């Protein structure tokens, strides 16, 4: 299970995030970016954050620590924004926290160089989890103390929104042409040789074990959270073996709309919002 922290103060909303994440302080004196169970994107984006973020960390990629954040909506009572109030009210109980990296900068490919080996590891990992949200339009990476950090894995494991499609996910191609690190010549083959053997059923099970039971409960087609966890393990293990053959880094699209589905871009009305 994730380490649990009680949110003691709601500091401010992060306006740039589509799901309206907030910055909160915890009873461990830490500061966290909080993602809410009551957000319109639903609890599955939080499950994706825990599994993909946890897997990336276990593979040695930099992802800020994830925690379970207990929220009593009363801590937001002085927040003037109605939308934030609604979100807090809809999110009492366990939410997701990510360690806030103070002073970090959004990744800018013109200002920060990534070597081909590191770019390869990130692209290979994103291909494994089918992350559609690390494009040059929305890199979802931070630079902190001179290092690259990965954030925002809510738009990965897309197949868990439609479990019958999960079996076919192992063979699904991954188009990395618009990936934010595509310009750095990602060495995906080297990353696959290094990382694929480490994605064992044991490692995946340890990662899935971190997801709180309540985010896996009552999943249609499954009789218990343990069964849902096993489905994540099985799907990712099958994909790890051959994902590098399925990854294409082609010509980047110059403009045009993001390929991320609308509901992940925060364009849909959030729960509680008009
Ligand atoms: N751990 C962190 N430390 C510092 N800043 C962060 C952290 N996590 C997120 N942020 C900032 O908050 C913004 C929104 O976070 P994030 O991308 O996780 O939210 P989201 O609602 O999923 O966004 P999106 O619009 O990409 O779907 C990031 O672009 C970044 O500027
Ligand atoms: Mg984001």
The distinct bound ligands, ions and cofactors come out as: adenosine-5'-triphosphate, magnesium ion
The computed structural class is alpha+beta
Strand order of the largest sheet: 1-2-3-5-4
In angstroms, what separates the terminal alpha carbons? 35 Å
Count of the separate structural domains: 2
Low-confidence stretches: 266-274
The percentage helix is: 25-40%
Helices, by number, come to 7
Strand content: 15-25%
Shape field: globular
Radius of gyration: 18 Å
Characterize the main sheet. 5 strands, mixed, barrel
Mean pLDDT: 92
Order of helices and strands: EEEHEHEEHEEHEHHHE
- Number-wise, the strands total 10
Protein name: HipA-like kinase domain-containing protein
Organism: Streptomyces synnematoformans
Pfam families: HipA_2
Question: Keywords, please?
Answer:
about 270 residues; alpha+beta; disordered C terminus; binds adenosine-5'-triphosphate; binds magnesium ion
Quick structural summary:
With 274 residues, this protein is of the alpha+beta class.
Care to describe what's here?
With 274 residues, the chain is an alpha+beta fold. It has two domains: 4-99; 106-143 and 158-259. The protein contains seven helices and ten strands. The strands form three sheets. It has a five-stranded mixed β-barrel. Strands 6-7-8 form a three-stranded antiparallel beta sheet, with no helix packed on it. The model is unreliable at 266-274 (pLDDT under 50). The structure holds adenosine-5'-triphosphate (ATP) and magnesium ion. Magnesium ion binds next to loops. The site of magnesium ion has 4 residues, from loops. It comes from Streptomyces synnematoformans. Residues 249-274 are annotated as: Disordered. Pfam families: HipA_2 (PF20613).
